[in-house]
Amino acid sequence: MTNQHRDYLHTIDVAVLRLNFEVSQVEVLVHKRLNDPFAGSLALPGLVVSGSTVDTSLPGAVKRLMDSDKVGMATRFIEQVGTVGDAYRDPRAWSSSTYYLAFPEEHVELSDDQMWLSMNGILSGAYKLPFDHNTLCEDIFKRLESKARYSSIPLYMIGRDFTVGEAVAAFSIVLSRPVQKSSMRKRIVKMLEDGYLVETGEKRSGSSGPKSEVYRLVNGAEPYIFDSSLER
User: Where do the NrtR DNA-binding winged helix domain residues begin and end (predicted)?
Assistant: First the structure.
């Protein structure tokens, strides 16, 4: 038996996530693939890294991807979620992927080849993405949901300025369950005390009731880690 050489591919893939408050859903950025395999399909933004690419590190490859027309938007937060690989996820060769979650800045414009898809639609299988991108989205959403229980990470998915009510809505969407305002107020007080938030001195009207205090995330602050899981 002769040994047959097979190419190996490593990719960087990213799920850029946003909150759509109008429909109370997490949405994922996808783009239309221009080349085979799966030309014309909607997929997570990604790129191949190899000895012939310009990248000398994973952060460099991630920056190249985020600057490309597959993403092309400023992000507030990005985190590596994991690495997977096998002989079946890519029809071209044995391949692996290091994949990330990211949150965009507040106002972004999409190209004609980009769109937002419902994360629920991807997780349910209503949207079939190429390669193993449905599985990557499942892992990425599990990371987001898990960290939302004990950290401030959903606050990075809303505007830099927000009210308690808007924070409650963000956490409730990510966790797929109602979150009490009293629990969120305790978290905001803790973040204020430890310098992760500041009061803007402004008030904003909500859908009902009196105007609410507006808070702002401190620039450059990492997600806050709480000492207990979020209560219902």
Answer: 156-217
